Amino acid sequence: MSFRPPKGTDDVLAPESQAWRRALRLWDELTTRYGYPPVMTPVVEATELFERGTGDSTEIVTKEMYTFADRAGRSLTLRPEVTPGVVRAYLQAGMQGAWKGAYSGPCFRYEQPQAGRRRQFWQVGVEYLGVEGPTADAEVIELGYRYLEAVGVPDLELRVNSLGDPECRPAYVEELRSHLRSIAADLSADSAKLIDVNPLRALDSKTDKPLLGDAPKPADRLCAACRRHHESVRRALDGLRVPYTQDDSLVRGLDYYTRTAFEYVGRGLDAAQNAVGGGGRYDGLAEALGGRAVPGLGFALGVERMLLSLAEPVDPSLGAYLVSETGPEDAIAAVSLLRREGASVDFDTEGRSVKAQFRAARRLGAPVILVWRGEGRLVDAQTEGERREMPLGEAPAWLKAR
Ligand code: HAM
């Protein structure tokens, strides 16, 4: 067979997929605890949604979208991110006031693939709409932080900044633009191109970092309302004991952010791909999509990057393997009983030898091997240092207590 997955896309099989399952389970648990029900939107949307939402001066929109015409000639795009779709769904459903949603699913960006930078990648994220107070920002930022802690991302660092709002940003952007023009001759071609279209993005440049030390920073030019908002967010994070650093050059790669912007960084990762996630407030996004004014914020985390940063292998999720001495037809009822009682058990359906079944159990990393000797008989539970017989009916409780 000569088929391979398209460049920058991956198959995920066990044991790697065990880490995925654990991460996605933790995501469900944590978002449930914080009151975020699931929201599902299409993987494919009208191209204009991203042009207007994500922003037509961003690299995502200018260089990285998978855009195609459907059979009726409509321009559609595989979503490069989830946020504009969720805001569209909120507006379309006629929702009012505070609304929360958590998502998990694939996104697509035509990037130069490398470890942690894929063309199809998986985001988990939340959006919290219809809220403008700084406590909402603190809740959202804390949720992402606690989740990454629970997953076990090592050396986790949170960076926060404020990008201002329509009150203070235009004057700041003009000031930054003049500054960048004054040093344009020394800037890289990429940053020089941004001076007219989106000077804020130039602050993000890794190449030009040494030249940008004197550039005015958004946090120094905030209006009083934005400054108060940012200070409240920081105070709330202090109160929640969520450690962060104020990063004046954090601007993010999307156009819609106002006020709060943040990133979660795993210091163990490669510098170019070290953001495991990011987000911020986007109080103007709903209007940019042609809807009414709805403030909101959220974040998204890249699951591949998150898992790449984990050193520890994940435990196999299988609790036990049942080796049958009397064939598969006889064993399946015993396995079914254990499963219905909540145990995670696998067995051989092919009638292979007892020796081959033991080998399979070890290959799957089952911590317990149950030996089934036939209807109504005892199971022999074998673990590393222990061996005991018990009636089948007692096995579920015994497995659970281990
Ligand atoms: P973003 O920073 O573009 O934000 O993406 C969020 C995360 O997705 C990144 O930090 C990274 O972990 C992961 N990611 C992005 N591109 C790739 C890629 N090519 N390969 C692997 N992982 C990738 C957003 O998408 C915003 N929608 C976040 C947001 C939600 N802001 C407000 N609400």
Model description:
- Helix content is 36%, strand content 21%.
- The protein is of the alpha+beta class.
- The protein has two domains: 16-168 and 222-308, BirA Bifunctional Protein, domain 2, CATH 3.30.930.10; 320-401, Rossmann fold (3-Layer(aba) Sandwich), CATH 3.40.50.
- The strands form three sheets. Strands 4-5-10-9-8-6-7 form a seven-stranded mixed beta sheet, sandwiched between helices. Strands 12-11-13-14-15 form a five-stranded mixed beta sheet, sandwiched between helices.
- α1 (16-33) runs antiparallel to α5 (134-151), α2 crosses α4 (83-92) and α5 (134-151) packs parallel to α9 (224-239).
- The radius of gyration is 26 Å and the shape is elongated.
- The two termini are 44 Å apart.
- 39% of the residues are buried.
- The mean pLDDT is 93.
- The site of histidyl-adenosine monophosphate (HAM) has 27 residues, from β5, β9, β10 and α11.
CATH topology of the largest domain: BirA Bifunctional Protein, domain 2
Unreliable residue stretches = none
Calculate the mean pLDDT score and round it: 93
Write the CATH homologous superfamily of the largest domain.
Answer: Bira Bifunctional Protein, Domain 2
Estimated helix fraction: 25-40%
User: How many domains is the backbone divided into?
Assistant: 2
- Name every ligand kind in the structure: histidyl-adenosine monophosphate
Net shape:
elongated
Question: Mind describing the biggest β-sheet?
Answer: 7 strands, mixed
The total of helices stands at 14
Question: Order of strands across the widest beta sheet?
Answer: 4-5-10-9-8-6-7
**What is the radius of gyration computed over CA atoms, rounded to a whole number of angstroms?**
26 Å
Q: What is the CA–CA distance across the termini?
A: 44 Å
What is the chains' assembly state? single chain
CATH top level label of the largest domain: Alpha Beta
What is the structural class?
A: alpha+beta
- The run of helices and strands is HEHHEEHEEHEHHHHEEEHEHEHEHEEEH
Number of strands: 15
